[in-house]
Amino acid sequence: MNKDNALNDLLHFLSIEGITGEEKNIALAVKQSLIEAKVPEEYIFFDKVNLKIPLGTFTTVTGVSGSGKSTLIRCVNFLEKFQEGTILVSGTELTDDAQKIRKIRSEVSMVFQHFNLFETLSVFENLIIDSNETRENLREKIKSIMEKYNFSIDLDIPVLNLSAGQKQKVEIIRCLIRSPEVLIMDEPTSVLTEQETIELFSSLKRFSEEGILIIYITHKLKEVMSICDEVAVMRKGQLVSTSKIADEKIETLANKMVGQNLKTVKKKISKERSTEQLIKISNLNFSSEDPFETNLKKINFEVNRGECLGIAGISGNGQSELFQVLSGEIVSKKDSIIFNNNPIGNLNPQERREYLMAFSPEDRMEQAAIPQMKIYENVALNNFKSSNFFNNGLINEKKIKEHSQKILSDFSVNTENVELKSQFLSGGNLQKLILGRELITSPELLICFNPTWGLDVGAINYIHETLIKINEQKKSIILISTDTDELLKLCDKICVIFKGKLSNIMDAEEVTSEKLGILMGGGEIV
Q1: How far apart are alpha carbons 252 and 260 in whole angstroms?
Q2: Most buried of 66, 96, 152, 256, CB within 10 angstroms?
Q3: What beta strand segments (E) does 306-375 contain?
């Protein structure tokens, strides 16, 4: 019996009345083992989750990947079904009756991490799509909301011309039109600059003061400590704690999330940096006919051995295109990229790997792995000439499995089963597998793009430790990230990409998150 069927049968068994205590204990033990075996998120088991949040409070729900926090919130908004229990808003029970769904969505509004906007439509056209009001009434209502909360947005321009912060405000306006009692924000700062984040926090605080219940989902504990009143921590489908922010520290919350004490990861600052150049990018350009891609304009930088160069920026400013050019997915002029004194600008990713370059793309599921394939099959995708995965056109499955087993062991992936499909790994474990697949060949340079995107604090710690060790081994890293804290923690040098152009390279010790935020928004540091 496969895992999916086992879970379905177990759910049915637990719902049967009259089962004995011993039978139930056995079933619960099986349930726990299935959870620990990395069951897909849709099979998260909740164990008597009871959470009361007073209206007008600002509460965070946090937890590691797979803890159930996102599933719980989706249940609150009836985007996910639950087997038993009740959800009350102001004493009224919410039900999933088809006729009441629209009413539910007005009382409990949610701004998702990935915006649900039509890029080519105007702001006003996006807002009127699911509204029953006349154009005139709706426009007046929107203008009133923008004046009240000091939102400055042109309603008649295409959404694609807005910044990430402005797009988020459009999503918030869409919610406020319905006068919600509850506003749920899912990882809202993942695409914002430091300044846009401050503006968002100011708006959310005002909503809370006006009586709207704010439920804030994030794994960024620094944000939790700075803006929220209360915090609820989920772990393995259970609510392990609810507490006031005044009674917590970042360290205590992190420990609750993972169920153990986490050590602090700090980058070793080398007093003597190498001056030996490893890679040099000269006058690199990229022009695309796709209106949704960003052109790159005269990109110039270099990285020495043992250095970590950070490239900051808001999503959509050319990071994806730059990663593709650096990895060889998009080829450029031969001499635009010199690696180890070799011109490689016209080489594809496989050819660049033979020169000991390694790549970790942003999208784990779509670009770095094939979810439906087994772990060892995904490892085989990164085939070096020296790997001996293929002999005379035949697949050496034994060699691939041995290689895969070493990756699982060396990089602390939470399974020993190389036959397991990659879709059953958590985000953190899949990222460990991808990094392990790239690093086990001892590359001279790792180019990674948002390596900790969406991961929990435990997985982030592990990835950061791994990247620091690479530098300590005199290997180099180009770290493209939207997380300014991550860049300041790991990098020796930092620059910012904005609308396809790079800023000057700065020493990380002289950079602050505020300075990065200004540059990421297109401003200049005075």
Answers
A1: 10
A2: 66
A3: 308-312, 337-339, 342-343, 357-360
Place of tokens 């759910």: 11
Alpha carbon distance 284, 122 (integer Å): 34
381 neighbors 370 (Cβ within 8 angstroms):
yes
Q: Give residue 349's identity as a one-letter amino acid code.
A: P
End-to-end CA distance of the chain: 65
Rounded-to-integer distance, Cα 196 and Cα 194, Å: 6
Name every residue whose Cβ is closer than 8 Å to that of residue 158 and which is 6 or more positions away in sequence: 119, 120, 121, 122
Query: 3-state SS string over 422-463?
Result: HHHCCHHHHHHHHHHHHHCCCCCEEEEECCCCCCCHHHHHHH
Give whole-number Cα distances, 53 to 60, 233, 418, in Å.
10, 14, 43
Collapsing DSSP to helix, strand or coil, 32 comes out as helix
**How many other C-beta atoms can be found within 10 angstroms of the C-beta atom of residue 311?**
28
Cα–Cα dist 46/48, whole Å: 6
Strands 476-481 and 308-312: parallel
* Amino acid identity, position 336: S
Q: What is the pTM of this model?
A: 0.67
Residues 22, 28, 33, 34, CA torsion sign: positive
Q: What is the DSSP string of 275-286?
A: --EEEEEEEEEE
Quote the distance between the C-alpha of residue 353 and its chain's center: 26
Beta strands 277-286 and 337-339, pairing class: antiparallel
Rounded to whole angstroms, the Cα distance separating 32 from 342 reads 53
Whole-angstrom Cα distance, residue 30 to residue 36? 10
